[in-house]
Amino acid sequence: MDITTFMNTYVENYIRRIDYYKKLEGYVYQLCQRQMDENGIRCIVSSRVKPVSSLRDKILYRNKIVGFKNIDDIHNDIRDKVGIRIALYFPPDSVEVEKIMYSLFEIVEEPARFENNTLQYDSRFSGYRAWHYKVRLKSKKFSDVDYDGEVIEIQVASMLMHAWAEVEHDLAYKEPDGGISDLEYALLSQLNGLVHTGEVILEQLKIAMEKRIEDNNREFLNHYELASFIYKNIPHETKVNISQPTLGRVDILFSLLKSINKHHPKAVLNYLTSIENDTSCHAISYRIIEKILAENEKAYCIYFDIISPIREPLIGSYSIDFEKKYRDNENQINIFLLKWVALEGYIRNNTKEESFDIRKVSSKLQDLLGEGIGQQVLEAYKMRNRIVHGIQVPDKQKLREAINGIDKVLQAIDNLEKSNDYDKKIV
């Protein structure tokens, strides 16, 4: 079989499955768009399924380079039938985008990093600068469709670089054998130089924006400003130590801060200071929200009001089933959370360390208050997390048991405080 036969068979199979590729494209596009927005990254996400004519052209072009011997060779080589582009306003955000890629997808191969001159013609400038990810979904289904492991290509670059790449790709990449003149190559090179200059200006624009939003007398206008402020004011070591996206659900954090009138630099800096000794690997938004929830019971109600419409809180899936069970048990849940807030407030107020370890605390309480107390505190803490982060709603019986358990702990603490040998600090 010659390349024409291979290609025709492959393209016919592709056409038969085009609806599948379009559904996959739509799903991955929405996934990327949502994650960029939630993490406060300014960008434009676009997507496409490879047109049949482009697929034919690429097969013929790649055949000149690698020499396809069968259909499997074509399938293994052409891995961008579904493509996503993330065009960043600010090039430095590519660091956080990479964390998002690793958290969202299975990375099939080492990302391609184009950071030096990769042009096929002489150029005095740096050429194409971008990051290409070959990925698969982690789930076996998407939008009720069985996923067959199809590889998706996600390209990340600045908006300016994406625009230049489109021009260069159509004029030079598709005609590598002398299709355009030396003058056209020279002009493409000069245009590339302007793009790199533009990227430097974009980075300066980001710095200017960061200076503007640091004014303590103004409020953050949106979660993008909040994200920029937090990212600038956390230590580099903290960013490195968090393998998941550094900020996490900054959109939810912004809504919560705004609801309690703390969406301004001074308040956020105070929260950042309060978590600076926290060595956990959780995203920054998660840690700050935990601090806010610990301050008073009203914060829990506000938090649920925020996440209910979007049905997607900080960690869990917050499904419709979760919402229904929550509403059915709302009174019991509210009592449980009020009890927990009282217990958590006591623990935080009587803990020497800025960030307490619940296992150490429960162990100490068990030593102080007797057998089983520490385990009750630990189980109540786990239940609180499952509820607050949309993971699971306990049944009424378990909620009643947890409420009674916290009452016993609070009563035991009250009795201990009245004794003469009480050590005020737990840890």
TrEMBL record:
Domain RelA/SpoT, residue spans: 47-179
Pathway: Purine metabolism; ppGpp biosynthesis; ppGpp from GTP: step 1/2
Domain of life: Bacteria
Biological processes per GO annotation: guanosine tetraphosphate biosynthetic process
Coiled coil stretches, renumbered: none
SMART domains, per the entry: RelA_SpoT
InterPro entries: NT_sf, RelA_SpoT
Identification of the protein by name: RelA/SpoT family protein
Lineage: Bacteria, Bacillati, Bacillota, Clostridia, Peptostreptococcales
